[in-house]
Structures are given as C-alpha cells and as structure tokens.
Amino acid sequence: MATMMSRLSTRSLASASARHPWRTVLVWAGIIAVAIGLNAALLEDGLTTEFAFSNDPESTRGARLLEDRLRGPRPINEIIIVRSNELTVDDERFEATVTGLFDDVMALGPDVVEGGVNYYQFRLPDFVSDDRRTTIIPFVMAGALDDANDNIEKLFAIVEEAGASAAFDVYLVGEASVALETNELTFKDIEQGERVGVPIALLILLVLFGAVLAAFIPLLLAVLAIVLAFGATAFVGLFVDLSFFVTLIITMIGLAVGIDYSLIVVSRFREEMGRGRSKLDAIERAGATANRTVFFSGLTVVFALAGLLIHPASVFQSLGTGAILVVVAAVALTTTLLPAALSLLGGRVNALRLPFIGRRIGASADADGGYWATVVRIVMRYPVLSFLAASGVMVAAALPALDINTGFNGVDSLPDGVQSKEAFFILEEEFSFGVVSPMEIVIDGDANSEAVKAGIAALREMLAADPDFVGPSRVRVNADGDLSLVSVPVAGEPASDEAIEALRRLRSDYLPAAFEGVDAEILVTGETAFNDDFFEITDRFTPIIFVFVLSLSFLLLTVAFRSIVIPLMSIILNMLSVGAAYGLMVLVFQKGYGAGVLGFQTTPMIDAWIPLFLFAVLFGLSMDYHVFLLSRIRERYDQTGDNAESVAYGLRSTAGLITGAALIMVAVFGGFASGDLIANQQIGFGLAVAVLLDATIVRTVLVPATMRLLGKWNWYYPAFLEWVPRIGIEGEVETAPAGAAD
Asked: Is 724 helix (H, G, I), strand (E, B) or coil?
C-alpha cells in the first residue's frame, strides 16, 4: 500500500512528467484535442435555459399533469407589442401593420409558432390599451423552451423589420426572447471579463515573476483548464441538461484557480532553483511541496463545490458540476503538464527578464527584510491588537448581511436599451406582464362534479376581488373530464414580491377556502409557483449544504494537518470571509452605497441562488489560500518545532505570493463584475471583495495572530486519532536551510 501511494504521490507525478516531458506533452495534446472536438460538436446542444427540480415539488407535479393529460409541453408565450405615437388601433394603417405582422409570424409555420391571435380577429378589448395607441399580439411558440429558444431569432427578425417604420414601435417579449437576450448578455459579459481581467492578471504576474515567459505560463495553464472543462461539460451534457450559465462559471473559476495553482508551483520551482538545486531536483521538490499543496487545495475546493450537487435545483447542480470540472482540470494540468513544461524550459523559465523587477528572480523565502517581514514583526509582536483590529473590520463588513433580501431579479433589471426591458415596462404599464406567464391552478378530480364546479366558481370570485390578479381567469377541462385548469394573470413579473405574495395568498387562503372538503388534488404551477418553490427549497437545503461542506472540510484538514484546532480556526475565519462578502453585497447592491461609483445597478434583492453559490466557491477558495499558508507553516514547524518562528516564516514566505494571487483573482472576478447583467455584477463583486479581504486581512493578519496566541495548542491532536494515516500536505520534512532561524 505504501509503495502504491508513493507511486501516486505528487512528487512522483512531477518527477515522471519532468523525466518524460515530450511524452507528457503529447498525451495532454491528445486529450485537449478531444476536448476541443467535444466542445465544438456537443456543448451547445447540452446546455439549456430551463430550470428543473429533482425532488418533484408542487409546481413540477402540476406542470406534469398538464403536459400528460391536457395540453402537452408547457406553452412558451411570446407577445409582440405594437405602439404608435400618432395612430390608434382604429386607423387603417395600424390595422394593416398589425395584420401584416401577424401573417408574417404565422407564415413561419407550426414548427416555429403553434398559434396566435390579434385584436382585429375578434376585437378583444383586453388586447388594446386605454388610449388605443398600443396593442398586443400573443403567440405560443412550438415545442419546449429549448425549441422556442432555437426559433425565437426568426421572430426577432420580423419584429426588427416591422419596427423600422417611423410610425410604429414594435417589441417582442416573453420567456424565449428574454432568455435569448440574457444569453447574449452573458456571453458579452464573459468577453468583457476576459478583456478586463486577463490583461490585469498578466501585469500582476509580470510584477510577481519579473520575467515574461514565467508570467505567461499560468495564463496558458488556465486557458487549457477551461478548454478541458468545456469538453468534459459537453460530454456530461449528453446525459443531463446543464444550465447555460455553466460557461460563465467555468471561465471565471478556471481563470482564477488555473492561474493561482500554476503560480504556486512555478514560484516554488524558481525558489528551489534559486537555492542551487538542479532542474529535476527543483521540480521534484516543488512536486513534493507546492504540487501537494495544489492537490489538497483543489480537493478542498471540490469538497466545497460538491455541496451544490445536493441541491435539487438543476441550476445548482450545473454550476457545481462545471466548477468542479474546471478545478479538477486545473489540478491535473498543474501536477503533470506543468512539471513537464518546466523540465523543457529549465532555467529559461526566467527568460525575458524585466528591468528592475527581474532582479528579484530567485529571491529566497528566507529573506528577512521587506514589507512582509515588517508586517510579520508587527503581527507577531502585537497579536491581541492585530486580532481585535482585523476581526473588527471583518465583522463590520458582515453586519449588513442581516438585512439581506433574496429573490430573482427579472426583466426590469436588464440593462437599459435591451428591448425586452422596454417591452416589459410598456406591457406592465398598459396591460400586465402577467399575461406572458399566468398563474395556473390545476384541479385533479372529476370536472363534472358539483363540488369541483362550485370550488372553481368560488376561486374565480376570490381572484377577481384581489387586485394583484389583474385579468379575467380562464378555465379549461381535458377531454376525459378529470382535470381542470384555471389560469389567471398576476401583477408584476413572475419573481416579483407582488407576484410571490399573491401566490402565497392563493395557496394558503383562497384554495383551502374554495376547495374545502372537495375530493380533488389542487396544485399551483407556472413561473411564479416555480420561483416560490425554488426559494422554499433553497431555504431548506442551505443549512444541509453548509453542514456538509463544513464537515468535509474539517475532516480533510484534520487528516492533512493532524490537528483539530487548525480546522476549527480555519472554518471560523473562512466564514468571516463569506459573511463579509454577503454584507458588502447588501451594502452596495441593496442599499446603494458606492454602486454608482463602481458602475453597478441597485436592486431590492440579491438573486436567491447567489448566496449559496458564493458560500461554496468562497469557502473553497478561502481554504485554497489557507492550505497554502498552513502548509508552509507546518513544513517549517516540522523542521524546527518552534511555533512562533514557523508562523512568522510561513507568513513571510507566502504573504506576497498569496496577495499577488488574490489580486489576480480580484482582477478576474472584477472583470466579470464589470458586465451588464446584475447577477454577474453581484457574483463578480462578491467573489472579488471576499478574496481580497481574505488574502489581506484574514490570511496575513488574523491567521498568524490567532496562531501566535494559540501557541502549541495549534497542533493539538487527540491520542485516539493517532491511527489515522499520515498524509500531510507539507510533504517530506527537510532540514532547515542554512542560516534559518531555529
């Protein structure tokens, strides 16, 4: 067993890759070529804009009943809005424009548009605004949402052509059109994030390494990790549909961890070369230490992200899958391909040195001067004061999180100028956005029974009296007479507070009153019901996921560092980073402090999926830096047995690198935060500020101050756990370098 473990160690992987570099490069080239092929052939078909649940909540059961026994797949409603500042619907030119537009859309055929209706067919008053200058043309798209998404561009082309007339403004709005424009904005934000984040990351790498070639290596590794993750995602998409948002997450996380992991290894390799080791010895030593740290860091990130797979919502499962795949790809490349590349480059890794900055190449971690040495002396000399000051800042940043309000930011949060947003405001002002996505009440029972009929009549009367149900309710019965559908438009967007409150009144008050004693199952479905079920399920699963992630992280760190104090301290300090991210998001996005300066929108809510996603990602990334710092401390402690000196050495030798790596992550996340979608702004900002605070305040002040105060208690390990195998992150213990403090 020991022999097998040694063969599979990060040191042995690095050594084998370095001794056979071209063989390693060729193997990876083949794998990457396959990934590119999978990406080109399968990725697009494996992505979806539809959200689903695996635990079958009420909204899903109701939708399934309607699909199986009444109408087939859920209808995807689209509405064309025609408005004129000069003419009314009674004008012949208005009628000609609307009927011509309607005929063009219907000419697309039943494979694109299932059906539609316009005002001039039946003179329906609900289709005309009070001033008679605006009318709506409702359509039902053919097939499911993904089919509608594929076809909606054809409607956009017709609408754009009709809107070219100076006399009319023509808009398209609905689930598929909003999804298309949101997808386009997402890909635009990805490009924006890359344009902003990558150049800044490169500049930071140039400053850290002082050499052009060394700076480009981490960027290349990050790009390859993203390519591999896209290919793996395309393969997974053959079996399960993944949210289109997974591409953004893979790019964002891939750039961050891909750069950071290779940064750690390249830095350690150059440090060992600077100590006089040969090329292969330096690679082996980096493999035994830095690569091992990367492996365990990646493992902690994967454990944290694995918590998302527990959630029944497909969006969390998709985000967790994509993020895990790119982290695994980054770790695999860093522990194998990177040693091979360093073997081929050797001392040439320092090629193209930069003036002044390049002079620091090969500087030893044992250096006792400089900025970080000063920080170390202050923190270690005044640990109580350092702890109180740093923890005070973090707690203050976290306090606004007590006012967090979660929900879904809808069409009205899209950037100005997006036609779906303009259409939404017209529709909401003149009609109701609820006509796009009505609330649907499913009655599974004998539709001909007097009890069911009386219940439906009583329910429609209650809905008509509630101002948040803004249109007449309609009733449909299936051919077998055993399933009824009552549909009614609701005020606001499907995820608005107004719509959610109306749904909750419907479920808690109106339905029990109308159908008391009736032999039928009553279910509410539709977008609003789906959203409310998502909120309820997320609230229920959040503590479960928190416990899962924290427990796994505790176990991993306990085994890795052979201490139960270190894991407890790590969890508490990492939760401070997460809390600070929540608090600052609330402060900026909900309360508006600094939002204008930073170019962000203000919004009454944080998207409901973001806090849990941020927790998983931030906890993993925080542990990433934590493992890196603690591994150097533990490595030194095993050499010297001196806790205070080991803490000082670990901080002094890693603080600059941790801060540089954090600045790279901040640049990447900040680049994505500069996008247009509010969800991307919230994610990017939350990740950026949390990583920055974590690397500067938590890792460089709170961790060393706490460890200085705890002393030898840091390494307390109960005797009854001695049977656990030793798999320390710090690798093989080495004699302290000459001249090091003991």
From this structure: coil
